[in-house]
Amino acid sequence: MIRAILGIFFLFIPFFSLASSLPWEGKRVYTIQVGSFIDKEKAEERVKKVENLPYARISYRNGRYKVRVGFFKSSKEAEAFIRKFNLREKIKDFYITRIRFSSKGVNFLSKGASQTVTNHKTFSKKGEIKNNSLKEKKHSKENKSTKIAVANVSTETKVVETKKEKDLTTEKDNFEKNKSVFEKEDFTESKVKLSEITAKDIKDGKKDRKNFFVKLFLIAFLLILIIFFILSKLATKLMYKKEKNNSINFQLLISKLLKEENYEKIIDVAVPYLIKNPHDTFVKKAVAESFEKIGRYLEAAAIYSELSKDLEEKELKVLAQEFERKSEEVLKKEFKGRK
User: Fold this and answer.
1) 217, 260, 276, 288: most buried, per Cβ within 10 A?
2) What is the pTM of this model?
3) Could you give the count of Cα atoms lying within 13 Å of 105 in the half-sphere of its Cβ?
């Protein structure tokens, strides 16, 4: 009986370790990218080479199929993973990168990983539903309190208005009753009192109007500021999307020219593009390869060294070293040609 229980426990250990190591939606983690392709078939061919590795997957991002393996807390863990599984013997071109995990467009090879992704999603949705219900309750309570406050204010204003009306009517009644008494002596005094009361009411009315227009002007000004802020945010988002789409379309053009082996055309088109977009590593790599193919080794070596510096800034040390090695190899070709 005890052996059977232990056997079941050890069967389920891999599943729990898999679920615990998979990141949540939106969490920033390190991963190893072993390929990036426009064609899905090429990505599937590459992923077969690493299908036995943990979390081998194809992620569709920005019009490209990216083949990746593993999730790591740091780049050191990723480097240890590379050494452990002898990844350099299986694949030449790979590098460590940092991503914000999203299960959208991700196709895992192992069933356990895909199952844990769905579990993450359902759990997060339940949390969202609970949060929304709590927010709705809070809003309903706040609305009730605001309604009560508005009702209290309206009743207070009504009481004040009725008091004023009563006071005016009582004064008028007293004046009419005692008209005969105040005809000779106090008629002028009562008239002055009535004029003072009406003057005060007129002044109060004017003040209330002024305050109302000032408040209205302030509210309108605030609304204009909010609308302007929202529109500026939307404009920046649209500009960013447009630039992103343009870069993707340009990368597709460059990959097409590479297939056609039209290297001179790539240099003519890509060099002005890199002046505006100096951090586009894909286009920069294509230009370096084009220079190398047509025998312009010095230009190719310079661009390869620039690529290694860019990748070092992004903390992609392994890939940076590869491009630095490539730069040295191209320089050797140049010196051999001169001899």
Assistant:
1) 288
2) 0.33
3) 13
Residues 157, 74, single domain; the answer is no
Q: Please give the average per-residue pLDDT across 71-80, as a whole number.
A: 94
Mean pLDDT of 76-97: 91
For residue range 292-337, list pLDDT tens digits in order. Answer: 888 888 888 889 888 888 888 888 888 888 888 988 888 888 777 6
**Token pair for 109:** 């090879």
Domain end position, chosen among 59, 93, 109: 109
The structure tokens listed for 49 are 């080479």
CA distance 301 to 8: 58
Domain carrying residue 213: 144-231
User: How would you classify residue 86: left for phi > 0, otherwise alpha for psi between -120 and 50, otherwise beta?
Assistant: left
Tell me whether strands 57-61 and 106-108 are parallel, antiparallel or unpaired: antiparallel
Rounded Cα–Cα distance for residues 57 and 107 (Å): 5
d(CA 32, CA 54): 11
CATH of the domain at 282: 1.25.40
pLDDT digits (tens, 9 = 90+) for 203-243: 677 778 888 888 888 999 989 989 988 887 777 666 656 55
pLDDT, one tens digit per residue, over 95-146 is 999 999 988 888 887 645 554 555 554 444 444 444 455 555 655 665 565 5
